[in-house]
């Protein structure tokens, strides 16, 4: 049975890897200016390429495709880790208010022009602001979880905190200038459009180590599934594990929210889709599976957002919600 399951998992990972490659290639090829696969190959291998095509691939489509791929993996893995940590299947960074905390700090940067002592609004400033917001909310939710045993109360507290952050942003919007308001509205709808290489660099610098760090937590997270007492009996340092989870999930959430906005339902739905696909709760299998599936779903939704009604671009969050909401409703109806 274990051999069959291992073989099944291998096929699942193979399909997901192929899916990532195909969606990534489609993001490079599809658009207002179609690019043939031969042209993409010549550009990647340093062959002769039309200057216009090369500029489109280098400055527009490649940064956006990389950002959507890394960002989707980061959001999905953060959602999985939070679900295991809180032992709650309907938890993710969006529901707990972590994304809202990041959004509040990004709102201060975009709407109020707060630079925290820096001279220019560099991508790193936006990330640091988003990280500070996500980290603060995670600490608040964690401290609350120690006092409140009712998971529903914890979720309500996260939602209320999210509304509070949104209310503060609404006040900032009332006093913002027109250009700042346009930038914030574009950010709040969720989109990887306009990604630049410095932004992709910050996203990769923070997101990829965060993803690698969570890969190392598979075994401790498996022990945590059965409770903190059992995890301690298995030699897991729960306090240190808690610190690692706060830092990693804050980094993963902030890295995406800072540049792409609050993208909903990826962290909530993708872990459940991965469990259904791989038929396991082993986090050593789920973490890489969730990363790959999150990349496929997010990059695919981003491609659809700019292609379905081109030249009009749809909000990314709207498409991810159309996929994620039915998954959650299905799980609720099935009693899972």
Explain what this protein looks like in three dimensions:
This protein has a single domain, classed as ABC transporter involved in vitamin B12 uptake, BtuC (Orthogonal Bundle), CATH 1.10.3470.10. It has 14 helices and no strands. The two termini are 24 Å apart. With 336 residues, the protein is mainly α.
Structure keywords:
mainly alpha; 336 residues; 14 helices
Counting helices, strands and paired strands, the structural category is mainly alpha
Instruction: State the end-to-end CA separation.
Output: 24 Å
Beta-strand content: under 5%
CATH class: Mainly Alpha
Catalogue the unreliable spans: none
Shape category: globular
Q: Average pLDDT, to the nearest integer?
A: 83
Offer a concise description of the structure:
The chain has about 325 residues and is mainly α. Helices cover about 75% and strands about 0% of the residues.
Helix-strand blueprint:
Layout: H1 2-29, H2 37-44, H3 51-85, H4 98-110, H5 123-147, H6 151-175, H7 178-188, H8 197-215, H9 218-224, H10 228-233, H11 238-260, H12 266-278, H13 283-307, H14 316-333
